[in-house]
Amino acid sequence: MFNSAKRPIVMFIGHKSRVLWIGFLTFVVILGILGVRLIDEPQVYSPGQSSLPVNANIDNTSIQFQVEPVKPDVSGENYFVNYRLKREQFRQETKAMLSELLNSTVEKSKEQAQEKWLELSTKIQKEGEIENLLKIKGFQDAVSDVFLENVTVIVYSTSLTPNEVSIIQDIVSRVTKVRMDKITISIKK
Question: Which of 13, 124, 161, 186 is most enclosed, with most CB atoms within 10 A?
Answer without folding.
Answer: 124
